[in-house]
Amino acid sequence: MSQSEARAQEIPAQVSFYEKRKKIHAKGIRGYFDNWRITLVVLTQVIFYGGLWLNWNGRQAILLHLVERKFYIFGVVFWPQDVIYLAALLIVSAYALFLVTAVAGRLFCGYACPQTVYTQLFMWIENWVEGDRNARIKLDKAPLDTRKIRIRGTKHLLWLLLSLWTGFTLVGYFTPVNELINNVRTGNLGPWETFWIFFYGGFTYLFAGFMREQVCKYMCPYARFQSVMFDPDTLIITYDPERGETRGARKKGVDAKAAGFGDCVDCGLCVQVCPTGIDIRNGLQYECIGCAACVDVCDQVMDKTGQPRGLVRYSTENAMAQHLDRKAILAHIVRPRILLYTAILAVILGLCAWFLAHRIPLKVDIIRDRSVLAREADDGRIENVYMLQIMNTEERPHRYRISVDGLPGAEIAGNPEVDAGAAGLTSYNTVVRVPPDAGKVGSNPIHFDIVAVDNPDIKVREKAAFLLPQ
Domain boundary at 324, 339, 372, which? Predict the structure, then answer.
């Protein structure tokens, strides 16, 4: 061995922890699963962009009004005190995601994830402006001339307009959209509204236009912990190696089996249509988002070569190993884990529905006036002053009757009724009087009953303390 060779062996090999990105030009494909993806993209965006313009009772139907600290969801108004419902929504979302993942893998990622949805929208614009995959690759290699600047400029302008409209729509759910439009038109847009429109729009432009699969591969935590929720009976995109190998091109009319070939013709289309650029024939990979584009394109290739469909298909590890048919696969889906997730989700949804249906649209906070602990009235009775914060959560006004008990002879001094506006907070000062010998010296528990005059079912009972001096 020469000295140079020995020196080369002594130098440790350099290993890079960063992979240089290769731009992916995903080929468009139409098929059964692509039609489902288009349907989900259109449906989610009709809800997102269109929900902003729905009206309900003369107001925006869906409005998370941060200034007023009220969330309007059609006919229901949620207040900060209703934060339990937000917690329930997050729990339901988490369990629903666990259930879907345990049954069908990253189905949400492939069809309804915002990153997937907006990347798909941006790719539709890209295909419309620049052309198909081959045209885009050719344009990338072309020198920077007037034509390339015009095409790329048109694409980015459309991307920016869509991104800004997306940011505007998001902010329109937190600031009344009519007010937001007027502020944009008059140039009086607030700093926070301006920030969030450009912040959300900017990240939409960045993630869906440039980073795309990088978000799924390196930024999304779901891709990293999905394996914890998978099991051998989870539906995933699979390639059948027993049927497909040995892969290779063959001439028309040649008996593939006699020539030692499997059904895979090694056309590479499954890689070309993949939005994350993986080869599904290498097995399950965390980059796979379960969009099934490879299933659509492979089925079309099988049709052209006269082979049965399903070389690449939705299946499970157990089904591939045990050669289970579709009926057996479906039977394995109903397993203890799925039943547990379903039961928990059903219980939580049932409880949320019950509490919402029986939710009393009245909340009351009682604060005793601490500046005057107790005072003696002209007739010798003892008075305590209270401030009632009456929160009417319905979008119609109510008149409430107030009564008090807990001490003998306790009564409201003055008018015991108060009017509260629709979906508003009303402060009401009242005086409670009791005989001087009605209780012990110091703090005594009493209760306020607040009942709607026009609907006796709307009522609350709140506890307070009445102070008797020595």
Answer: 324
Q: Best-predicted range by mean pLDDT among 89-93, 153-157, 442-446?
A: 153-157
Give the separation between CA 110 and CA 438, rounded to whole angstroms: 70
Same domain, 36 and 134: yes
Task: Give me the number of domains the chain comprises.
Answer: 3
At 39-60, the pLDDT tens digits run 999 999 999 999 999 998 888 9
- What pLDDT is stored for residue 231 in this prediction? 86
Q: Is residue 176 domain-shared with residue 263, that is, in the same domain? A: no
| Angstrom distance (rounded) from CA 80 to CA 445 | 27
Residues 433 and 376: their CA atoms lie apart, in Å, by 9
Query: What is the chain's length?
Result: 470
Query: Can you tell me the distance from the alpha carbon of 366 to that of 465, in angstroms, rounded to the nearest whole number?
Result: 10
Domain boundary among 198, 227, 256: 227
* pLDDT reading at 398 higher than 80: yes
Q: What is the mean pLDDT of the chain?
A: 88
Say if residue 197 is in the same domain as residue 240: no
Directed axis angle between helix 191-206 and helix 146-172, to 10°?
130
Q: Does residue 136 lie in a domain region? A: yes
Q: Quick one: DSSP state of residue 112?
A: T
Rounded Cα distance between 99 and 101, Å, is 5
Pair (405, 461) in one structural domain: yes
**Angle, alpha carbons 152-158-161 (nearest 5°):** 140
Reading the block at residue 249, the tokens are 């091109």
- Mean pLDDT computed over 236-244: 91
What residues make up the domain containing 245? 231-324
- Which regions of 369-441 does DSSP assign to beta strands (E)? 375-376, 382-392, 398-405, 411-413, 417-420, 424-434
Q: Are 237 and 257 in contact (CB under 8 A)?
A: no
Are 333 and 100 in contact, with CB atoms under 8 Å apart? no
Torsion of Cα atoms, 384 then 389 then 390 then 394, to 10°:
-170
147 within domain boundaries? yes
What integer is the mean pLDDT of 125-137? Answer: 93
Q: Give which of 214, 224, 220, 237 is closest to 105, Cα–Cα.
A: 237
Output the six-digit token pair for 364.
């009351």
CA distance 467 to 470: 10
Q: How confident is the model at residue 356 (pLDDT cuts 50, 70, 90)?
A: confident
Same domain, 246 and 395: no
